[in-house]
Structures are given as C-alpha cells and as structure tokens.
Amino acid sequence: MDPNIQRALNDKLYDKRKVGALELERIIREHSSAGDHQRVSDILDQLCNDYAYAVHQPHARNGGLIGLAAAAIALGQELPRYLAKIVPPVLACFTDQDARVRYYACEAMYNIAKVAKGEILVYFNSIFDQLCKLGADSELSVKNGAELLDRLVKDIVSESAASYVSVLESSSDFNGDDKSDFDDPSSQFPTAFSLPRFIPLLRERIWVINPFTRNFLVGWLTLLDSIPDLELVTYLPDFLSGLLRFLGDPNADVRTSTQTCLDKFLNEIKRISRVKKGISDTKRMREGGKRKRQDSADSEIPRVDLEEGDEIHSDIGDEDDQDDLDEDWIPGQDVEINYKEILEILTSSLDSPLEEDCLLESLRWIVDFLDICPEEVLPFTPKILAHMLPAMASPNEIIHQAATRVNGALMDYVVSLADEPTFNNQPAVSQGQVQAQSTSRLLLSGEKAEGGNSNRASLTSSRDLEVPGPAPVPQQGRSMSTPTGINTSQQQTDLDYGAAVGSLTLLFLNDHEATRVAAMTWLIMLHRKAPAKVLSNGDGIFSALLKTLSDPSDAVVTKDLQLMSQISRTSEDSHFASFMMNLLQLFATDRKLLEARGNLVIRQLSINLGPDRIYRTMAEILEREDDMEFASIMVQNLNNNLITAPQLSDMRKRLRNLDSKDGQTLFVHLFRAWCYNAVATFSLCLLAQAYEQAYHLLQIFGELDMTVNLLIQVDKLVQLIESPVFTYLRLQLLEPEKYPYLYKCMYGILMLLPQSSAFAALKNRLNSVSSIGYLHVAPKSTASTSNASSYDRPNRLKGREESGIRWVELLDKFRNVQERARRASSLMNESDGMLMGVSDLRIGDGPADHKGKDARPVPVDAPPLPPKDPTPAPPAPAPVKKSGLGRQFGRLGGAVAGKNRRN
C-alpha cells in the first residue's frame, strides 16, 4: 500500500481513516479491473497482518477493518475469491476487548455481506456465533451494530439460503466454513447454507440464559422455519428441549416470542400430518378403484373368443402409472418428523413442576399429538401417566385443565384399542367363554378371542355377561373405533402394561386425592382390557391395593375396592378366597382400619361382587378363625351392616324366608360364623324370625360372662330394634298369640340390660303394646280348646326342623364356641396376671345366680314376664293387676310344650 494510505489507516481519527479507506478502494478497484490479482492479494495480506491482527494497536485494527470493508466494496463481483482472506480477521475483531473495535467489526462485516450477498452464507456459522454473543454485549452501540448486521444476514438467508450455490464450489482453494460439504463427492451442487452443519451450533447455543440471546435465537428459529425448502421442523428434536425452557424466562418478551415460535412449529406438524394423511387416503381410494377396474376388465375376458397367439392389451395399468407420474407435489409430503424423539423431550419436560409454563406447553403438545399420531404416543403412556396425573392436582387451574384434557384423550385412545387381538397360531381360549364388555367410552361387539384374558368386567355393571361355549369366537366382529385401513398386526400396540401398572402403583403414595383417584381409574380400565397383563407382576399390585384400603380418602378406597372386585370377578374362585383371607388378615392386624373402613369395605364389596358371595366366603373363613376376639369384632361389623346397609336389603329378605331352601342355607352359613359373637347371633335369629331359637340363645346368655362390651352390644341391638329395619318385628308384637317367643325374647333382653336409656326405651315399647296384647288374647275358657288349631306350627319351628335346619346342632355349636371364647379369655387374663375389669360384671336375680342351672331360664313353663323385678323402675301397674299377661304366656308356652311332647 502507499505510505500515505498506511498512515491514514493508522490514524486515531475516524475521518482520516475514512479518507485512507476511500483511496485504498480506488487503488484496489484499478488493480482488480486490470486483472492484477496478485497485487490485490498482497494488499489484503498487508491489511490483515499489519492492521486487523494488530492486537495491541486498536487504531490500527480499526483502520484494518475499514480497509477490508473498502476492499470488499472495490472488488464487487470478484469478492468471492478473496472472502477467505477478508472474513476471518473481521470475525476475530468481534471478540476484541475494545468496544469500538467490536462496533467497527460489525460495520465492516455489514459492508462485506452487503456486497457478497449469498456468498457470505458460506461463513454463516461463524457469523451467527459471533452475533449470538454480541446480542448480549454490554455496550449499546455494539448491540445496535450487531442488530443491523443481524437484519442484513436474515434478509440474505431468507432470499438465498434454500438455493444459493457458491461460485467457488468447484474451486480447489476454497476454505470456508462449509468446505467439508464441498469436498463431499456425493454432493454435486451443495448450497452455501448448510442446515445440518448449523444444527450442532444451535444445539449448543439453545441452553443460554441471557434474555437478549434467547430473543436472538427465537428470532432466527422463526425465520428459518418460515423458509419452506429448509424444513427446520425436521431438526426440531435437536433444540426443542432448550426452547421449552425459554417459556420460564422472567422476561415477558422472551416468553411471548417463544410461545409464538412453538405455535408455528406445532401448526406446521399438524399441516404435514394432514397432508400425509390426505395422500394416504387418496392412494388407498385409487388402489380400490384400480382393483374395481381390473375386476371389471377380467370379467369381460371370457366373452371374447381368442385365437392362438392373440393377446389382450389393457391400458388400465398404464393410465394409473401415468396418474402417479402426473400427481402434483404437495409441500410437506416428503418431510419426515421424528415423533418419537419429540415425545421423549415432551415427557421429560413433564417432570418440571416448578416450570409451569413448560409443563403446560408439553401437555398441550401431547394432546395434539394424540390427535396427530396417537400410535406414537402410546409407548410413552407409562411416563406420561407418572407426571400427568400429579399435574391434575395442580393448584393452577390452567395446568389442571390441560392435564385433565390429556388424561381424557389418552384414556379414550387406549380404550378404543382392540383388546389383546389373537392370531391363528395362538391357543384357544382356555375358559371357553368370552365376556361382553360395556363401557361408557366404548362399545365393543364381536371382539376377538383372547387367550386366557377374555374374562373382562364391565365398568357399569357388577355382573359379567358370559357367553359359554367351546366354539371359537367369530372373527368377523371388529372394534367400532378401529380404523378400517389398519390391519390386525398394526393394532398390536406398544403399550407396556407392566410399566404402566408400576407408574400407577407408585402414584398411590401421592399426596393429592385427585391423583390417587385418577391412578385407580386407569388401573380399572387397563385391567378390564388386559387382565393377565395387569396382573403379570404377581401379587405386588394386590398388596399395594390392600394397603390402599387405609387411604384417608373414601373416593380412593371406593375405587380401590372396585378394582379388587373386578380382579376377583375375572379370576378363579381360589383367587377370590385368597383375597378375602388377605383382607381379613389385614383387618386383624390393623384394628384401626377395621374401625374406620370396615363398613365401607363390606358395603362396596357387596355392591361390586354381591352380598351373598362376600358374606358366605367371609363366614367360612371366620368359622375357622383362631383369634376369638377378632372373629367376634368382625362378625359384629358384618352383622351391623347386614341389618342396616341398604345394599343388603335383598339378603335380609332372603333370611326372613326360612321356609325356602335358599334362606335356610344362607342362615346356616352365617349362624356357624356368627357364633363368635353372642349378640350378633341373637340378632341374626331375630332377623330370620327364628324367635324360639333366639329365646333359647338367651337362656345360654345366662351362662356367659356379662361383660361391659356384651352389654354395650345389647344396648345397640335395642337401638336397632327401634330402627326401620325391624318394623316388621315391632308389628309382630301386636300378635302375641302368633309370636309368643318374640315376647320372651324382648323381655329377656330387658332382663339382661341394666337401668339405662336402652332399658327405658325397650320397656316403654313393651308397655305400649301390653294393653293391646290383652285385647287380642282369647278368654281363658277357650284358650285350651284353641291351642291345637292356633298353634299347630308354633313359631314355624316344626316346619323348619322338617326342612333341614338342625337347630340343636346349631345351638350346641353356639354353646361350644362361646365356651372356647370364655376359656381363651381366662387364659389371657391369667397370663397377664390380672383379670379384666369388666369380666365380673353380671346381672342376676338372686344369690343363686352364679350357678349355671339357676341362671338359665326355665325353657317352657316359666312366664316370660317376671311378676317381680326389683331392679327396674316400677312399671305401670294396670297390666299386672289384670288377668295376667304372664299367665297367658305361661299357657301359650305350656301348650307349645305339650304339643311338642305329643309329637
């Protein structure tokens, strides 16, 4: 360079450097026009080495930058061959410590890019990297200069990135950022801008936290996505994870621009999906039309008489091939989107409860993906469930609604899938039956047989609809929700039932009730679709379900019982018996659970599995129970529910009908287990209207230790007698001649009770019917003559004995069980070294009460209404002074005894 130009470029004043640059521009233009490329190259080398790379001379660096910009302007169309010399020193100045050098570097690169246009894209990565850093520069002038350069580069990328090919692509001395692509022999005409080479840089930069840099990146992503031929959406998995984090940025502008960018990507994915689906449908319709035309042509061939050597030529295939060739290309039809990797990122971002915006966007994408590509979402179901169900309990209403939408859409899709389709090489159904399924979400008709897993329960019914028969299930039936164009092999989904069950089971420990209820709902649905797969982990899930019975939420426990009932319905009887044994064992070890949840468990199981099955099975297990105390408590709970639960009204009606074989069998089953609790056994007899046997039980009560607990149970029984369940019993008090032992039972209870509110209530009840009872009792003179006809079947005892109930054996069973309980209690007291404080509490009528035979009432001749009772308050004297209700009952008892002796 001319010495004057050198001095001018090295001056500290900008105006003098500018004058030197203008003179340098004129000289380079002259040499370039003359073709003196060597001289131009020497000048550029001098500008780079002596000026631009002069680290400790800021004025020289500024002069070198303005000189390189002037040289680029002077070279014009010849600039591409010199870019390898000009661009690197300018890029190096972007990182200079002096803010003025960084600014002039932006200015120089702006002028160079303005002349080079598409050629500058060869260095796009380097320029982008520097602009990414300068966007967060502390100096405002540098940021403004970088913004100007950024806008220019964006314009160049928008115009040329998709198609521009460098003029030096065949040059051997090319040394740009994209040289590896140019050296690739498989790429004959590579573009200057390389998206595959840019993505690794973007993947590195996407994790920045500076809001200015984030805005810079979002702006570039939006621009690149808007260029149709680049198809940036193909590389979405490479930067989606970092982009989602931008939604949690404290800067509102960053969040807004990021949300807009993500919406564009999602809309583009939807558009591409629609295009591909439309093309697939069109091809399918065309293939169907081709087959119809071919069938039509084949049907006409037999009508033509062909001679040897003649051939038939058809243009049908040629026309179809020509249609394929003439088919218009639709943007997006050849774009491949990696749904799997995108879903990996979305499900991973669900595990970010503190980043609510990120969580919300991931849920929104998953909902849309369930509409776009549900088969791709299905393998991620376990992971989605693990994070989505907790989000349903979010205090943020927007997140709650989004998670609920995902839950509903995902469950709808899983429900719509074919239930474990079977193939020809699989064994036949082992049970020889298929149960029809009826759900609120899906109606399945003609489902294919499922090996060993065909026993499915309905969500809306507590009973299964069984279609017995060894014949195979017809194969023409198909799920109504299964797409027509998808074959059976495609319906074999990738849902990992084991992982899904594991994820849902862990959610039992979640703090939120809504999450636990949702997890139970999912398990119920999955078990209905594939019982064997859900239970493939053995007893692990069943143990978790049993532990969940202690959940503080009634809704969770109800769902838990529904699932266990469903499992029991679709399993063998041995599995159900094991379930009942485990349940009773849990109650035995956790008495608080029995107290808090016992009634709910019994009633829900009765609803889901039928009260008869529950009570019979529990009675059989309790009859063999060694823990007398627990058996008594459990029987008491079962009995209270039997009397009070509305769900067991049918069972109570069956018990009251002891004339039928069904009622007798049920009564005997329950009685043998109820023997562990004296009051429960007595109330069972009252419920079954076996009043004579109830009276005999009262006689055995006199031999028992009247503990406080027993008296409390009697007190509760009196309250139950006053309830609507025993309305029929209270009405029967109006017919003393027909139900004589009922009066004896009621007064027997009265004699057992101490002076208490229950005693007063029962006494008032009996007093209120005593005077009415006199009106219906026949006169004394006619009583003996009417005994034979009026009491031919006293209290239906004879009919019952003839029907098969062995009352004596049952009473002996009761006596033996109560004696075992007494001995067990005594042994326990002796081992503890002390007696229970309430064991000695007895109620007697005299000093001989401690003797067993005196404590037992006279079975026949003793009147049920004691004429003398010093303990209770004096009753109304009127009934006692009349002809004697006690004497009337004595006659009734004598008549009954006499008839029995005659028989």
From TrEMBL:
Residues 591-769 form the Vacuolar protein 14 C-terminal Fig4-binding domain. It comes from the Eukaryota. Residues 282-325, 446-490, 838-903 are annotated as: Disordered. Residues 452-462, 476-490 have a biased composition (Polar residues). One of its GO terms (biological process) is phosphatidylinositol biosynthetic process. The keyword Endoplasmic reticulum does not apply. Residues 860-878 have a biased composition (Pro residues). It is found in: Endomembrane system. Residues 282-316, 847-856 have a biased composition (Basic and acidic residues). Its main location: membrane. The keyword Repeat applies. Belongs to the VAC14 family. This is Vacuolar protein 14 C-terminal Fig4p binding-domain-containing protein. It comes from Emericellopsis atlantica.
